[in-house]
Amino acid sequence: MDKIVGLITTNYGIKEMDLIAGERTLSSLPYGSRYRIIDFPLSNMVNSGINTVGIITPYKYRSIIDHIGTGSEWSLDRKRGGLFILPGSIFGVSNSESRFMIRDFELNITYLHRSPAPYVLVTAGSVVSNMDYTGLYEAHKKSGADITMVYNIAKEDDEYLCKIDDTDGKVNKVSVGVKEGDKEFLDCFIINREKLLDIVEWYQAVNFKDLFDAIEDEYDKIDVRLYEFAGYYGNVFSVKKYFRSCMDPLNLDINREIFNPDMPVLTKGHDTAPTKYNEGCKVKNSLIPAGCTISGTVEDSVLFRNVVVEEGAVIKNSIIMQKCVIKAGAVVENAIIDMKNVIQEGIVVKGSKESIYFKEKNDKWD
Amino acid sequence: MKKKECIAMLLAGGQGSRLGALTKKVAKPAVSFGGKYKIIDFSLSNCANSGIDTVGVLTQYRPFILNSYISSGKSWDLSGREGGIFILPPYATESGGQWYAGTADSVYQNIEFMDIYDSEYVLILSGDHLYSMNYQDMLREHINNNADLTVSVIPVEWKEATRFGIITSDEEGKIVKFTEKPKKPDSNLASMGIYIFKKKVLVKALIEDSKNENSSHDFGKNIIPKLLEEGKRLFCYQFNGFWRDVGTIPEYYDTNMSFLSHNPPFELDEVESQVMSNSNIYPPQYIGADSKLSSCIVSNACYVLGEAVHSVLSTGCYVGEGASVRDSILLPGARVEPGAVVRRAILGDNCVIESGVVIGSEDPEDEITVIGNNRVMKAK
Lengths: 366, 380
Fold this sequence. Notes:
The structure holds 2 protein chains of 2 kinds. By secondary structure, chain A is α/β, with parallel strands linked by helices. Chain A is built from 10 helices and 26 strands. The longest helix of chain A has 10 residues, at about 135-145. The model of chain A has no long low-confidence stretch (mean pLDDT about 95). In chain B, a hairpin with a 5-residue loop joins strand 9 (about 165-170) and strand 10. The mean pLDDT of chain B is about 95. The interface between A and B is large, with 37 and 37 residues.
């Protein structure tokens, strides 16, 4: 769709997730056995026909660039349009207040100026959903609004997501923190490009503010409307919520929605061999990618690439990230084991359902 | 253009008719293997892993799937600026043009292509063999021997020797005799259909062969005996790894199954010899709460809700609740609906076994059942 350019922001974090994220940003956290979270918004863009996409990178951008490369997996290595790696403003360790900082648009004003497209679709890189943006675009065009924000009805409280207040579909307030039943902003909106350029100019003096904070007193002048997304949305704004969202694709309805073959989630490809299930293994209700070797027990769990589960090892209700080895007789329960860990023979690693144990990655730069 | 030391000509035009239903619509190199691969992945990966960056792929029989699969060659890192993969089908000329009449003829018709790169050596390969081999070792031996032609050979069981082109060599490895399917073999070294020629010798032999009306234009039948007769320096290079030409259904079945063992014939995922493929991005496998999996290879996008034992499940297969698959190979997209039973069978791409249907026989004396691509086996 040459009417829209995409913009994905990946440069903000959540303090609570720093433990897990480490050097990674929320957007580059592993999800769904073989993906990084940014695969979802990026694939959504491509699947919706948007083939010019800018990615606003965080200060520590290695994990994002390493993953996305030239964008060839998303067919974004193009002559016309394609992938643009863009600078982002440097936040502190974490910044939960600002997601769409005026300064980030200002930094990339050239990208926005050069594009001939009338609309800009902006999304956070940390939204787990399989969404066709065509519906949002149609609704936005039809209403003639300046900005259309994507929301759903909150199923639970969340201190990081934003609540949207509206009168008859016209937004008049956006505030941090939602309660169950509120309209919760899914960190995704479409905006007329000219209007975005205007806003960046008007609010230069307060460019440290989030776009929706900057315009808070002017909802009578800027026409901001709503678009409901009723599909699956996976929240990753706390360890508990991230864990739960990772487990969600074990539900086959959610699994088929987010892994819809007509809207494929694309990611960096690897030449991993298929997974080998040896005699005597016991695997139940689990999500497993290629490249694993499984001789032990795996139940209600999500494994990542190249995990080895030796004979007699037991994994229950856990997430085991790439290149981990769970040795014979080891037990892992209610835990997230980050990359390249070896759980030695007979060791028991246990969290509880209420408090998930997290073992940080064992990166030896091999 | 910078002169290349060695380029490869990969023969991928054959049907592989003995694979029956599996090659009805696709050329043998494009047949799926080992869960996520196609047969041609093995020789293309060998090229890439051996630093051979220019590969001509000679296609003829039903090339569409093969061509689209090979695409730009990027999947095997064979899309460099000064080389890459070139698909070479038969073509028309001012005097009419013709189909490839044999393995040697197909290379003969592409002498112009070889001239572009004008390499010192040409490696001739088959796109339908399964093995992991570094061609550099063979090339070094070829150069050290100052050979005109080096034939890669593999020791086979003596009783099997009657099925192959058998090489008899002297102590230095110089070939003294080449016999196609000998009744009484005097050697057990079989030709693997992998040749390295000095390019000049190859071109001369091909041109002469093309003028011989009695020739069937085949490397094994015509070119090698001719060079031997002319007293050229022919050497053999002994390969001691695993190699199969998976020409028949039982061979295809057994070779697939051998990857289920604790000691597979070769590793698919070693850094130095990784088998690469042009795979789409697929979601992970989902293994259901009431499933039973044992001794299986399973690829991405599979949903296993029933039982799968001692089987290969390729990309995007589905085994429904209460369904049972044993000793079978499911090719990409095959569906075994709830309650269906599959025994010692090969299910073609995207075929469907409906609920209640029983396919195949457990009796090892019976032939392997093969269900062709896209077939739907309905309940009676």
